[in-house]
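hi!! sorry for the late reply, been swamped w classes. u asked for the two structures so here they r. pasted raw, havent cleaned anything up. first the sequence of the first protein and right below it the tokens
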Amino acid sequence: MTSPGFRPTHVVPQRGMPAWETPDPARPTVPLDAFLPVQLVERQGDWGRVLCANGWSAWVDGRFLVAVPQDPPTADGGPPARTADPRPLLARAERVLSGYRSAVEDLASGALDGETFRVRTSGLRIGVVVDAESMWLYDAERGRWTYADGARLSTYATDDGPRATEDPGHAPTQVVTPDGP
């Protein structure tokens, strides 16, 4: 049975996902089924409290929820502004790759020894997979893999588990929909 006014904002990823009673890994509850429509109603750092169509709610790692495409309202009725532009991350990947290629050239020509090569490339980290219009980029600064469809960038996977807060100086974000919080 669906709660009146329920509008999903996200769906659970294809493999399903673990859920918790509170934003605390020590309090697990029943995992959520794959492709379950949910409504994200609150954020606390990486944690997200979701509401299911039957009224049940749980906390999940909000970074893994798959957003349901919706046209956001705009003040002037024009097209929505693009968010999470993939170009800055692509430019960063190009700079790191160029630096690594330069170090490889210097090593191959004998201008660098193995130890100097290791020092020069220490800390370099990129990841890029392009498959037709789909692209996955590793964002080393945020420790996450992102997915881009050519226009938008969204988190695909992360290096670590959910954190209680991203910025302890701010109150948790509450998601507000046209129908209220």
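now the second protein. again sequence first, tokens right under
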Amino acid sequence: MALVQKRAPQGSARPAFVSVAPGFEPALVRELQEIGVQATEEPGGAAFTATAESLALVHRFSRIAGRVTVKIGAGGAGTLEELAQTARSMPWKDYIPAGQPVAVKATANKSRLHFTATIGKKVELAITDAMRGPRLSGPRPPREPAPVIVRVEGDRASFFLDASGELMHRRGWRLDSAKAPIRENLGAAILAVAEWEVDEPLVDPMCGSGTFAIEAAGIALGDPPGDQRSFAFLNWPSFPAKVWPGAPRSPRPKGIGVIVASDRDPGAVRATTENARRAGVAAHIKVLHRPFVELEPPARTGLVVMNPPYGRRIGEGDSSNAVFRHIGTVLRERWSGWRLAILIPDRALLRDLGIPVESALLFSNGGLKVGLFIGEVR
């Protein structure tokens, strides 16, 4: 008689953590609350209670989140054998389909177990041992390894599963990139920190791959960023399949302001056009091939959001000082009355910009510390 694979009963709610670039934690918590997930701000992200419903909401609707990890359990890890015994006792069958490989990342702090590679291998073997049993009929298990994280602190180990799999900022539309692009979730977070509203005109005059404009259009249209991709937790045997399709869709706002993406580089214009098409928002973004000095404001007021070229992104014969002096001059001459959100890698460049702005936060972009500065052009 053939065995029919059934989903395990839905597990109890478990502690979870959603990561974000340091500095953007308050914006993340506000967003999670708006989509119906109660969260507590923590360094590098936010803690929440993982249920089937909350996991679906975070992954489907959060534009700011980076990755979600769920705590499976904890126990003794004074020795490798105790670690293995603790690992075998975890409810892996609720979260890993039979036959799916496992990839373990380990960290150790103040522990007699010093070698993280040895810890990871020991846990991997223990999970494989715990998963043994008859092979059941049903869908083939995923080929991608289930991402497991073990953190050893002293003589105890905590076990986590990566619920997201691939990082959440990868929406699936950005195949064409300009130099040093802003990640999609950071683009959305910057718009949130700048308090951009969907009916406010938005212009990115140095658009690169179009991240700010495309994220803004997605926000304005209420398009769930996680709709076009899959996540690791959707393969968990304990996850009820009906929850994901049943997750509510964000309401579409009635009024959407003009969104303009422009660049002097024809390659950037092509990248933005193609990315917007793949994201399904091309009809809502005006893409222009213009140098900033020739760009006309589409309204009397709005938000100019900019990630200007600096450092290695600047062409020969230019300098960061010259670039920011040019930006400041053009803004004062043509964009008076507009709000400004601009990324600046060095406070010394504020003098070249010549526009009163306030520091909103500091974060890392591509390994380089940059500041987000917000002000009004006068």
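hope this helps!! also noticed smth abt the second:
The chain is about 25% helix and 25% strand.
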